[in-house]
Design goal:
The complex is a heterodimer of chains A (about 450) and B (about 50). By secondary structure, chain A is mostly helical. Helix content of chain A is about 65%, strand content about 5%. Chain A has one domain. Chain A is built from 19 helices and 3 strands. A 3-stranded antiparallel β-sheet of chain A has the order 1-3-2. Chain A is globular, with a radius of gyration of 23 Å. Chain B is an all-alpha fold. Chain B contains 2 helices and no strands. Chain B is rod-shaped and about 65 Å long. Classes of the chains: A mainly alpha (about 450), B mainly alpha (about 50). Chains A and B meet through helix 2 and helix 19 of A and helix 2 of B.
């Protein structure tokens, strides 16, 4: 038995009457974006987000950090155990909901609200730090220095991690199997430990740990910022301007947007038709139905990633009409951070109903994580309340997140353009085509939401 | 069958309308800006020899 994530992701109940047809929301959101663009041109003449002054609020003792790491390791261990030893019934085992809902969707939202909270609880980072500390004690402080993290590696290990999860989520037929998820989690943790042992815990965690990097992207949008065991407050969005424009940065944000885009697209009628024809073609060549589906969906995922990249590249090409001195590669890396709010907007828009509905399942799953009839916290009888958010409420959250995300993207791109071109007129002129890209992403997001509901 | 779906597809194309409108607006604006820049360049007096 599997959960129908697609139904949950798009809202399980029929939408009530909206004041205007869904298609007209595209027009309304475009008007908001164009008005924001004009407003930025008139009212935002100086860069404001590149300096990142922060104000320290309070610090936390070292023991709290160690405790958070220990909690992260314990939860990770329990989930792996539940995946391997618990029931393999998807709705009854805690692992699929923990991974696909709490981890993949919940932590990005928490990161936006509270900063990079995952870093403190990151189990493989905690194990890496504890292992390093222990090895240092045993070796009497004579441990060799880790290798310098290669510049050419950049963000690519993180890209590979997120793309692999995207493939699992969108293509693999075993994406919900508790034991498969547990084994993959162990494999992922092992790769991270190898990376950390080679290049150092912090060096690797900053750019190599796919999930750590993914959550930190969204945390960079938050006004709350954790640094050196202290919480600081800073201007919202300013953190993301500090992303290092290293190799793989564009691929990272493209993958972050693309995997969610394909997840929405594959539920719609267009992909259903295309996939059917592709599958027929592959099976005609002698492939099994399972292999044919995997190849079709992998192809679809890759094509959607390419589409997202091409759209962004068109915006960069538009910038080149103002700026011939900088190479397209330099420009696309310099403005890649502006896509981060779009990636988060897509996550919220696409998965909000999943989080609102299936997230409630954690109330009974924590009491019976293995699905064997236990009732540890006395909540095993809880059920999902589908009335917690109305269908229209979901739709407005989805549209609202898309609009806010894309306006934030316009703000970030405009602010960076002011740094590059000084003159506000030139800065605005450089962003015309980026506006078109943002409008396209917004309308695409709305279409994907409605496609999944058809 | 394709005809039966045409109404559905037609409604879906409404999503493209705002994108097309913005692209047209930007194209026209870019064209006018370029013409204005060229005209200003022509009006500038030649530097003294």
């Amino acid at each position: 038995m599997t959960l129908d994530w697609a139904v949950l992701a798009h809202g399980i109940v029929g939408r009530e009457d909206l004041p205007i047809p869904r298609q007209w929301f595209g027009v309304a959101t475009t008007i908001v974006l164009v008005a924001s663009f004009v407003g930025l041109a008139a009212l935002w003449p100086q860069p404001r987000l590149e300096d990142r002054p922060d104000r320290r609020l309070f610090g936390v003792p070292r023991i709290v950090e160690a405790l958070c790491g220990a909690i992260g390791v314990a939860v990770f261990g329990l989930l792996v155990y539940a995946g391997l030893e618990g029931t393999q019934s998807v709705p009854a085992n805690i692992v699929p909901t923990s991974v696909h809902v709490v981890f993949w969707v919940g932590i990005p939202v928490l990161s936006l609200l509270f900063g990079d909270v995952f870093r403190a609880f990151n189990p493989w980072r905690a194990v890496g730090r504890a292992g390093g500390w222990l090895a240092g004690k045993v070796a009497g402080g004579r441990l060799p220095e880790p290798l310098p993290y290669p510049d050419r590696l950049g963000w690519w290990p993180a890209v590979a991690g997120i793309a692999a999860y995207g493939w699992l989520e969108n293509v693999s037929t075993q994406r919900d199997d508790p034991s498969t998820l547990a084994i993959l989690a162990l494999a992922y943790a092992a790769i991270q430990l190898v990376g950390m042992s080679l290049y150092g815990v912090e060096s690797w965690s900053r750019r190599g740990d796919g999930f750590g990097v993914y959550f930190r992207l969204f945390a960079a949008l938050s006004p709350l910022h954790w640094r050196d065991r202290a919480l600081s407050v800073r201007r919202p969005l300013s953190g993301v301007t500090g992303l290092r424009p290293d190799p793989g940065l564009v691929a990272l944000v493209v993958v972050a947007i693309g995997v969610t885009t394909f997840d929405g697209f594959k539920e719609g009628p267009v992909w259903t038709d295309v996939a059917r024809n592709l599958n027929d073609a592959w099976t005609g060549l002698g492939l099994s139905a399972g292999s044919a589906t995997r190849i079709s969906y992998t192809l679809g995922l890759v094509l959607v990633l390419l589409l997202v990249f091409v759209l962004y590249r068109l915006g960069v090409a538009g910038m080149r009409s103002i700026d011939r001195d900088r190479s397209p590669t330099e420009l696309q890396r310099a403005f890649a951070h502006s896509l981060v709010p779009i990636a988060l907007a897509y996550v919220v828009a696409h998965y909000f109903s999943l989080l609102a509905y299936q997230g409630q399942a954690m109330a009974y799953l924590v009491s019976d994580p293995l699905g064997r009839g236990s009732d540890v916290f006395g909540t095993a009888d809880q059920t999902i309340d589908y009335g917690v958010v109305s269908a229209n409420g979901i739709w407005y959250v989805q549209v609202g997140s898309l609009v806010i995300g894309h306006v934030a993207a316009l703000v970030l791109a405009h602010d960076r353009a002011l740094v590059f071109y000084r003159d506000p007129k030139n800065a605005t002129g450089s962003q015309y085509w980026m506006l078109a890209v943002m409008v396209t992403f917004t309308v695409l997001g709305l279409y994907l939401l409605s496609a999944g509901n058809d | 069958m394709p005809l039966a779906h045409s109404g559905h597809w037609l409604v879906e194309t409404l999503y493209v309308v705002p994108v097309v409108a913005v692209v047209m607006w930007i194209s026209i604006k870019s064209l006018l800006d370029r013409r204005r820049a060229r005209a200003e360049l022509r009006r500038e007096p030649a530097p003294p020899e």
